[in-house]
Design goal:
222 residues, mainly alpha, 2 domains, 68% helix, 0% strand, disordered C terminus
Length: 222
């Protein structure tokens, strides 16, 4: 049957992808965030000019502190992605940092429709924002948040991830929605809050509705 060679080929390509796919994302994102961090490290602090646009809790912090946080999170996160060290945590921190950057720098100040908002999906700002590039970074960070740094990473060397297919379950989906949607409230408050509430509901459902084997956390995490 033709399906057997195709299945075998697919499995082999998937095996290669576990080595190369995360590596490509890590290298490109490491370059971008490290470059941005170095520019801040050697440049002038311009966060005071946009301090009112930062979402909470960053709007309550001094511009100098926000500048220092952004600089060193980009540098440390970029190095961590390059090495594949604590990849999930590093990618998530950079994901939140990018959402904050979109809200403060790239998001349109005023928009009244999805069509108008979509005009901000651009590299240069024509009066409607320019969130295209950071939005692409968010999409590229997501596979690293959920799948890790891949085979060619310090994580694999240190923690020996066996890459077995895991069951997400309600708890997994709930935690993911909560973690991703809370930062998104800075850009889209209503969808962000709705997603976070749905995440909380799934967490509760996963905690209490799993089969009665072991403790509630253990059952929900299976």
């Amino acid at each position: 049957m033709i399906t057997s060679p195709l299945v075998s080929l697919s499995a082999r390509l998937r095996g290669v992808g576990e080595w190369l796919s995360p590596l490509g994302l890590r290298l490109l994102l490491a370059w971008e965030f490290t470059e941005s961090g170095l520019e801040k490290l050697h440049g002038e602090n311009w966060f005071a000019e946009i301090s009112t646009r930062f979402p909470l809790p960053f709007s309550a912090l001094p511009p100098n502190l926000n500048w220092t946080l952004a600089t060193w999170l980009e540098l440390a996160g970029g190095c961590a992605l390059l090495l594949g060290f604590c990849t999930r945590a590093s990618a998530f921190v950079l994901w939140v940092l990018t959402v904050v950057a979109i809200a403060a720098v790239h998001w349109p100040a005023h928009w009244s429709s999805i069509a108008e908002l979509w005009r901000g999906y651009a590299i240069t700002d024509q009066g409607f924002g320019n969130y295209k590039l950071p939005l692409l970074y968010l999409a590229m960070l997501l596979p690293l948040v959920f799948s890790g740094g891949g085979r060619l990473s310090l994580d694999q060397l240190l923690f020996r991830d066996d890459r077995k297919t895991a069951r997400a379950g309600a708890l997994g989906w709930g935690l993911s929605l909560l973690a991703l949607c809370l930062p998104l409230t800075a850009l889209l408050p209503t969808p962000g809050v709705a997603g976070a509430l749905l995440g909380l509901a799934l967490i509760v459902a996963g905690w209490y509705s799993a089969p009665a084997h072991g403790t509630a956390p253990e059952r929900a995490l299976r």
